[in-house]
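User: Predict the complex.
Assistant: Input components as received:
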Amino acid sequence: MLQERPIRPMRVLLADDSDSARALISALIERMGHQVHQARDGIEAVDMCKALRPDVVLLDVMMPRLDGFGALAQIRSMPFERWIPVIFLTALEGGESITRALMEGGDDYLQKPVQINVLQAKLHAIGRSLLWQDELFEHRAELSDYRDRAEEEKQFARSLMEMLANTSRIQDSSLGILSVPAEQLNGDVVAAARTPNGKLHVLLADGTGHGLAAALNVLPTIEPFYSMTSKGFGLPTILAELNRKLYTYLPRECYVAASMVAIDTVERRIEVWNGGMPDVLLIERKSGSVRMQPSNSLPLGILKPSEFDAELEILTIEHDSVLLLASDGLVEALGNKDLALGLDRLADLVAASAPDVDVGELVYRIASSKKHAIDDDLTLLVVDCPASAVLPTSRQDGATTGKPTAPSGEWAVEISLNALQLRETDLVPIVLGFVRAMGLSEDDNSRLFVVLSELFNNALDHGLLLLSTESKDRDRDIEQYFKIREQRLAHLEDGSIRIGIRYGQSADSRHVELMVSDTGPGFDISTLDHGTELSRGGRGLKLVRGLCENLEFRGTGNVAVACLKVK
Amino acid sequence: MIQLTIHKSSETARIDLAGRFDFNGRKLMREAYDPILADSKIKSIEIGLEKVDYIDSSALGILLLLRERAEENQKKVVLCRAQGTVGKVLAVANFNRLFEIRE
């Protein structure tokens, strides 16, 4: 029986001043399969305990120099991580010392002379407790490993997020960003960039859940947003791509609520898409009147790519305004659960402030002071929308391109687009590709781009779709205008548009001639000189005239030719 | 924590939820709907939201997952009697385009 393997082999420290008792007890313990270290008094016991860190200590009560109780007190005061059970060895007649041994912090006692079966039973019981302790420590170590790893991963994700969602990348003077993350890691992502023709694209996305998981869900949207915007793609194409990416990469239960806007300060027109985000607000600075664009689409990543179709709403900028995009909780943060009251308060605030007040700062101050009321991330984007047309500048991303090398000699390209292509192709990137290929300066590129897209839109809207501009110049009708445009474009069966670009050089100047013609009926050219030109292009043509040396209409008015001097 | 009661009739199973419906409800919901999805007689799964007082984006995700699993098993999911904020959250997410929503 003594030879059985113990359930947990232990290192036993045995302290007894009697040589014979020590010899006997250690022989027994060793035969039970444990390791024994011997001490002859309390002081030796304390020292060896410190050095050896035994699994269990057997302490005789009566010992010279330092008795068992004194040794126990010192052992207990040592900063051991683990519990070291202590068993007192007491004389048979010592009922009082048994009580004291347990009261002073001993875990058990053994009466001398030691009986083998009792000793074995007690060591067995302690072995079992130590096994539990071992297991506990293992788990604790695993847990702390796990926590360290999780923390490390979180750090990694955070730096990844910061790199991708780097708001310093967003250096647009008309945009303000304010954010209060609910956890260390904000699940909201903000991205903003300008298209080649100066439209400002802004994306605010909020992933499922909070913190790390939410942030990771949003990641796949960032790069496509920037790269497609810089190529000049429109909102519907970009949104379809974001949806496709998220649908492909995210687990089925994850999605990304987002709002996205395109602000065109030349046309004074804002395209809004809102999928699962709070209302996008357009607030007039002077009157404080608020227009809301509620969520009218499913969030991104839910619909199959074949089912996704971004429906845009159009808002017009009638007076100097600010556009507010907020993630969850803005209205709550404004101090009122009731949407209407929250908005009223906001509108009053804006109207009561000076025209140049930083509206974002204003809202943010109130919102963050009420932060305790909400438990979600809060991000607020404020975009300045002036009513006076602002010509787009060509700076993008702060990127500096090398010195442009203009192609030598003269050359020309021409493309023709039929009704099907006009219906289904996003033309801006094609046009931009043309312009870029010319290797001109950014400034010239930007001018060419604006002129070309204006002439193209003119040919499409008025030449082929036969839309009247009268309605377009009255801001209130502009939404209607774009609705009709969309309907007519979807049903366009006939007609085509030809775009020609001709580059020429002379000794002291270089020029680009842009020709855009449509197969529509045109208009009466003879009326051009009487200012009625505006009836066929509105603001757009005025803008084009300002950007090029010469603009003329030929044929029946269906051919526009613009000439630009370039550097 | 969400509480959940299941009623089954011949072709319809109803899971009534009560309390706070968020990510923590995932396991309970799965345990509730897995046997229902496996039951070929059931054609429609109704989720009773009347007593839910809070719902978050993760919970909407749980519903999306259920919808997909149900479609694979030729069943439909109906969201029933959402109140107040819960109804508003479903509306903002435009879930009426994916689910039948019943008062």
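The two ends of chain B are 24 Å apart (CA to CA).
Let me know if you want any component modeled separately.
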